[in-house]
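Q: Sequence in, structure out?
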Amino acid sequence: MKIFVLLSRFPYPLEKGDKLRAFHQIKELSKNNEIILCALSDEKVSKESIAILSEFCSEIKVIRLRKLSVYFNLIFKLLFSDQSLQVAYFYNKKAQKIIDSLIQKQQPNHIYCQLIRVTEYVRKSKIPKTLDYMDALARGMERRVEEAPFYLRWFLKTETKRLKRYEHFVFDDFDNTTIISEQDKNLIVNIKNITTLVVPNGVDYQTYQHKDIQKEYELIFTGNMAYPPNVDSAVYLANEVMPLVWKQKSNIKLVIVGAKPAPKVQKLKSDKVIVTGWVDDISEYYAKSKVFVAPMQIGTGLQNKLLEAMAMQMPCITSTLANNALNAEPNKSVLIGENPNDYANHIVQLLDNKDLYQKIASNGFQFVKENYTWQGSTSILEKLITQNNNE
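A: Exactly. Output:
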C-alpha cells in the first residue's frame, strides 16, 4: 500500500514527542508499505536528517514555512476569523498547491495526518484518510491557562475555544481517528469519539536499555524544555520538591536534560541542579542517574520520558495526571506524587530502601516491555489503515 504521511514538522532529530511518534511509525509502516513523506517546517532541515528518513520513504518533500508569512497569517486569523491558530500557523496557500500536486502525482492509497495542524490541507480529499489527534490538544491548552502570565490568558482561552471547535468538526472529515491514550480519547469533544482508536507509543529498546555504570546524579527529569508543561514541571521539581529533599539529604543532585531550555529552566541552575540543554544521547544521562521524577501538573498525552526511564530499569515517580495515560499500577510499577511532600518522601525512600528501589525498577521495566513497543502499537495503526482501504 502507498501511504502519504503529512506532518507539521520533519520527524528528525527526535527532540519532540510528535517527531518521535512519527519517526517510529514511519519506520514500522515502511516494512510493508511504500511511504511518501510530506513535512512542513519553519526551520531548515539538514541533509543528514533527510538521509535518515530516506531509508524508510520512497519520496520526501519538505515544505518550508517562512516565519514572516506565518506571523502575518496568524495576526490576520486572530483578528478576522475564528480559526484555530494552531491550524493557521501551519496553513499556507503555496503549500496547499504543492501538497495537491504531490498527491496527484503519487496517487496514494491512504493519507495519514499527524495532528490537526495539517488537516486543512487534505480534509476534503476523497482518498481514504486517517487523522492522528495524538493527544487532546485543546484540553492541554486549557490546562495551561491558570499557570500562564495574565497577559497570555486571553489568548490561551481564545485558542482553547477555537481548538475545541476545530477538533470537533474535523472529526467527521476523516475515515479513521487515532489518539495516544484512553485519557486523551475521552477529552476529544465529539459524540463519535468512542470510535477513535488508541494507538500508544513504544520504546526503542536498543537505545534505552539498562547500563551498569557509575551514577553521577540522584535524580533526573527530561523532555523538551521549551514545552510549557515540561517547564512547569522542572520549576515545580526544583523549587517546590527539592528543598524538602535537601532538608533530609543535602547533597542530592538533580539533572534536567532536554533541548532549548526556557529562561525559567535556565534560572534553576545551581551547584545541585544541572541544566544540560540539548544532548546527543539522552540515554547516557538516564544511565548516570538513579531515580526518574516527572511531576507533570499540566499537559496531555503519554509521557515518552516515563517509557524511556522504565525501559532503562529506573524507578519512576510521577503524577496522577501522567499515570492516567500510562496506566501503570501505583506502588508496584510506579510511585505517584500528589504534592511536594509526596514527591520528596518517595525520592528519599527510593534512595534509602534498596528493596523498594529494585521492586519499582523491575516492575516498571516489565510493565513497559509488555505494553509499549513500536512494533505492537504501529501494527494497530497499520491494521486500521489497511482494513479501511480493503472495505
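The domain at 2-202+374-390 is CATH 3.40.50.2000 (Rossmann fold).
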